[in-house]
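Subject: complex prediction, re-run

Hi both,

The earlier run crashed halfway through, so I resubmitted it with identical inputs.
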Amino acid sequence: MYDMAIELHTDGSRRLYEQIYDYIKTEIRDGKLLAGERLPSTRSLAEYLQVARSTVEYAYGQLLSEGYIESRPYRGYFVCAMEGLLCMEEPADREEVDRPSADAYSISDGNAEGEKVECNYNFSPHEIDMSGFPFGVWRKITRNILTYGNSELFARGEAQGDYDLRETVSRYLHSSRGVNCEPEQIIVGAGNDYLLMLLEKILGRQVRIAMENPTYIRTYRIFHSFAYDIVTVDMDECGMRTDCLVRENASAAYVMPSHQFPMGIVMPIGRRMELLKWAAGREGRYLIEDDYDSEFRYCGKPIPALMASDKQGKVIYIGTFSKAIAPAIRVSFMVLPQALLERYRRECSFYSCTVSRIDQRILNEFIRDGYFERHLNKMRKIYRAKQELLLRCLEPFRDKFEVSGENTGLHLILTSREDVAEEELLGRAEREGVRVYGLSESIVEEFHRRATVLIGFGGMTQEQIAEGMKRLEKAWL
Amino acid sequence: MYDMAIELHTDGSRRLYEQIYDYIKTEIRDGKLLAGERLPSTRSLAEYLQVARSTVEYAYGQLLSEGYIESRPYRGYFVCAMEGLLCMEEPADREEVDRPSADAYSISDGNAEGEKVECNYNFSPHEIDMSGFPFGVWRKITRNILTYGNSELFARGEAQGDYDLRETVSRYLHSSRGVNCEPEQIIVGAGNDYLLMLLEKILGRQVRIAMENPTYIRTYRIFHSFAYDIVTVDMDECGMRTDCLVRENASAAYVMPSHQFPMGIVMPIGRRMELLKWAAGREGRYLIEDDYDSEFRYCGKPIPALMASDKQGKVIYIGTFSKAIAPAIRVSFMVLPQALLERYRRECSFYSCTVSRIDQRILNEFIRDGYFERHLNKMRKIYRAKQELLLRCLEPFRDKFEVSGENTGLHLILTSREDVAEEELLGRAEREGVRVYGLSESIVEEFHRRATVLIGFGGMTQEQIAEGMKRLEKAWL
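This time it finished cleanly. Structure:
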């Protein structure tokens, strides 16, 4: 067993867990702790250092989440292989590192190859923390699946997705989103974009669709490419204004009730009821509920999906595992109300499923065996810690900016109290090496408003957040 | 080492390799050879039995391809685990087995759940042999990829697919299909159906598309769901008749020049040139080349793709790994000519890639490291042997039926010389427990013709083929 002779400063200048975390990280980086080496158990290290066991656990958790160490069941904690570390390094004090977190996710990536971002501190609202990804579990499940005994997995599967996975998803939706649906109503597909393409085939071409303004611009572009007749509807602090919606002759409305992007609004039950009433008002009207990141809520009880309140088959629910697990997994799902399900079966069921059956099976076991739940708990903790840090860093900004969107999700919203242009704020940040995102990127039709920026924290390490915010302070205050 | 006391009959009544193959298979099935047990090396068994080493290799190859044994590098051959065997068992002499090969692939699967097929001998033209799938290699590649060092793989990738994979595909297209294209022209997608959906967004809605009659009915359904204006064009022995095509005011034509489905026609160079000339005759005209199973050609040299002859950017090429590797892999690709590539970039590049980056990486290594080539060689041999057997079994049918389509692909075509209805033939076969496929399933507009059936052999074992054909003889002759 490796002896951790950590000199802890107990004068309160730095937190104990941070000192343990820093010490071990430095030891690993400097090659003093080698890949594969076992760390002392949390209990023995806590005894040795005379600190609470939870302090060591917290430090280990941080190292785990950042990919420095891994946990092996019944065996303990081990140092990860170096290649793993290289790409996890935060570039806090290095000028040469130009892309701390890949920007492929950016909403502004209009071109296929993606633009290089020169900024070292990219507060993208679309990035997630991949360091917490449970590679070990994923690898184990995969290994067990890829055997001769499962060769039927390599044949073409059901068009809607494997029944087992749909059953697991329906259980998950019931327990965590309050949605009661049958596996028969679920269609598994390779990402939301694909499911929207399929939905176009189901809803048909003559759709007049209402969207909030601002909204998730990727979806706007997709509807635009369908040549849908898009009407924008104003928002208030509860989300889409139904008094405006009723004036439009729309046949569908696209909403994100659990966490509106970009405004971060959680739609209250009253507004939800109004929307459902609007949809029920005419045959063929539907609400498209995009529940893209409902998993990450930091305060209060989880709020059920809009579909959970739908008694009349008016909600089309779209969920994804891209945010909660990893974008590369490419598994999303859509829950159709009965009437649309019949239309899908009649007119679209010959489209083959776009998700590999192997991936479907891996995901199914990942959820079914409780790994997903554990992963979510872990990520929620990680994101909460990042958000708390970001909120602390934002304290000095509160004179000049209003901060909102802190209940849920992976970004916060800053609205300027002064008369300053959005581009001016972005430009000043950029000159300090910080990239934040203007609300204008999410705006379909510009309107009179204060300069507003989104600050995402999902893909940033705590160090990056701290240093990036220091620079932003210099840029803006 | 297990001693194989095989009594070989050398009177010529049965081939030596077959006797060895049968003996070992029976030993495994009867549990005398257990999972994980090592077989003697081919050399030592050949010496022991006093036969040529190639005879043993052939027997082992057959056992390998049917999943009874597996080969481990540097270690030899081992008996596979029993679960693996259960699903590989051919039901030759068992009444209770009702689905020797899943029918999810059938072109007639109009409903999402797929219909149960009661026939024990399903000569589906759409099934492939999965027993040859290199699980070991796939598992090894997967294991190496799923590490912390590759965590960037779990982030969202390029919309067109990972550049490395596109580079590998472009090299493969060059060497095996004669196509010269840049990785920039390639779009990777989750299956042909998806790529066609994307193509709809690129080509737009006002497309009048020419299709052969008969054609691949799945694609017909997809174009139909796009509300494309579909015109059917008659075929002759060279494929789509250009003299008929020029009379239609079509803006695109969908063809399968390497192996027309279902007729099995390989389009000669003269007709190809005529098609290219037609396309060049007006701006905005395109040929959609579906090269779905060009890998399996049994005689003569491989014939380059139509795109290889295209000098004017008129061909949209669609290829897939579903046939050559496994349907579940869900990786297809589309090569766009320059003009359409620009339109794609302008209007559609915000659609995220539908294939998981992990799967892309696995496939890339599989092709790049030569496993794909080896796999194809192996499968070509397996399919050739099955086709030869089927052709032998078809000898007694030649008085009553014309046999065609033997140059390439995974099915043969029987055209009746007599005045009998197609349904009559199918019905008589079905009563003997044999399912063959009527040409009518591929017909868009019925025309005067002889009864024609497709007999696929890809998904059948040799035993199934032999027994199924015996029954078909009873049904039809």
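Chain A touches chain B through 74 residues (CB under 8 Å).

- K.
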